[in-house]
Amino acid sequence: MEKELLIKSLSDIVGADHVVTEKAALQDAAKDYIGYRQFQRHSGNNMVNIGACVVRPQNTEQVVEVLKFLNENKVDITPRAGGSSVTKSIEPEEGGVIVDCSDMNGIIEVNETDMYVTAKSGTSLDWMEKQLNEMGYTAGHFPQSLPLASLGGLVATRSIGQFSTLYGGIEDLLLGLEAVMPDGEVIRIKNNPRRSVGPDLKHLFIGSEGMTGFITEVTMKIFKYRPENRWLKAYGANGMQTGLDFIRDFMQDGYRPAVVRLHDPVEVEHVIKLDAPANTALILLIAEGPKGVVEATAAGIEEIAAKYGLMDLGSKPVEHWFKTRNDVCHTYIDQPTYYNLGAVVDTCEISANWSVIGKIYNAVRERMIAEIDNLYLIGGHSSHSYVTGTNLYFEFAYIAKDHAPQAIEDEYFKVLSIIMEEVLRFGGSIAHHHGSGKYRTRWMPEEHGSSYPLMYKIKEALDPNGVMNKGVILVEK
Fold first, then answer.
1. CB 285 within 8 A of CB 234
2. Which of 80, 102, 124 corresponds to the end of one domain?
3. How many Å separate Cα 228 from the centre of its chain?
4. Fewer CB within 10 Å, N side or C side of the chain?
5. How far is CA 226 from CA 133, 196, 294, 339, in A?
6. Is the pLDDT of residue 336 over 80?
7. How far apart are the C-alpha atoms of 255 and 399, rounded to whole Å?
8. What pLDDT is stored for residue 329 in this prediction?
9. Are 368 and 378 in contact (CB under 8 A)?
10. Model pTM?
């Protein structure tokens, strides 16, 4: 379709003021924070496709008309929300259209009897949390991207928050939603505590990364806000495996602190910069809720910590983490500290069962050190734990050998492949909470195994023209 006709038609639907065509704005809308893209930009090479335009619907009715028009004309659609992607999920197809929900924002309802909040998909989570706090409530969802994140993106990427051990991930918090299908059909999934009426259709959208439809409205649980009832404790453990064993022990004993973090000795030395003995792993814990529950949680965990001979580091390390936990949104993104060293830096979050998570950690580190001769550092932390296992959030940096754009990308995937291969070898999952985006798609067949063909059947049923966020999750046939 000719670009001029495309832009005019979309302008007729949403108004010319809500269709963006300036090159700088298009580049900004497609801006992803995956490590090698940041390095390319720092080196003066913006290698990202830009769409024909960005369209900003003001309401569900406009989303219906926009999607119907684009679908009928087989124009590629990239849904966009807060713009904090680190997985290439918002990089559009060349000449496609970015449909941005950021103008669709605001709380629709706070139901204090049934304890839920309903808001439009472009609503800032940070802003909504502040409104809830003033009313004595919390959404219980605190991703590191909190200052940037909006509700639609959180659902679409299967987000998780730093207090997840107590409150759960977005899949646990989401009660219902409204979405528009590619052909313009509006569907609503009602807000109930639980239903036994067939498959849970919310999961067609949770983690879909926009490949099935466009989320326009979200309903989440809310909880009583009790910041005065917090217990904060930091421990030092002799090595990563000791820390993992300790967390597994109290999780399987039934304790649920809100925050459970384990930073390996590499992060303790280079990132947190804690003055601690060699090989010290740092455990950060926060419990919150009713006073009696917090006190019982603290007492139980302290008893288990004594069994493991952990170093009691008091509350100061936790207080520092809590104060600075979201600074990455303001200082790390496009911040040149590493780049001035000529280093590409990034993270990769995976998950696995307790029986293998330590083996994955060791195997990744061993291979990185042996195979990446320009490695600057490889470390990581666990930040979300369960009865059955935990996640690892690897952090890596290496000195770029060649600043040519394609060379940067090739070298990045050589490093990333080590993580992907070792996780799959041990039966873990290659993505825990950022969404898989477009950079992990090549590993999706092995990740899903025999269930992978079902993904194509879902896509073909819901988006037969294949216009919704091409390249995420599905390897193009």
1. yes
2. 102
3. 28
4. C
5. 9, 33, 11, 41
6. no
7. 42
8. 58
9. yes
10. 0.95
